[in-house]
Amino acid sequence: MVGQLELALRVASALFVIVAPTLLFLGLWRGLEAMKDDEIIERAREEGYFTTSPAPKKITSSVLPDATAETTTCDTCGTLNIDDATYCQECLGKLSDQ
Ligand SMILES: [Zn+2]
What we know:
This protein is mostly helical. The chain is built from two helices and two strands; from the N terminus they run H-H-E-E. Strands 1-2 form a two-stranded antiparallel ribbon. A hairpin with a 6-residue loop joins strand 1 and strand 2. The mean pLDDT is 81. The site of zinc ion has 8 residues, from loops. Zinc ion binds next to loops.
């Protein structure tokens, strides 16, 4: 009888270990959903703090080198890098000074 009680306790604790994180996760998920629909967020949306389609950030030419700018070609992979770069942005190889 004692063995059966212990077995029942172990099964119960095992079930708890399985079920509790699931319930916690579901609770977190519900909480996040509720926060998403919060009236403050809703009011902010109505007042235009969020644009419906955020414009993609344009990469400036200083970040993305083109062939006309001063560039250094990687000896390893052939990628164009900005002239004063020390390491290749693609393969991270050391660039030789030109
Ligand atoms: Zn490279």
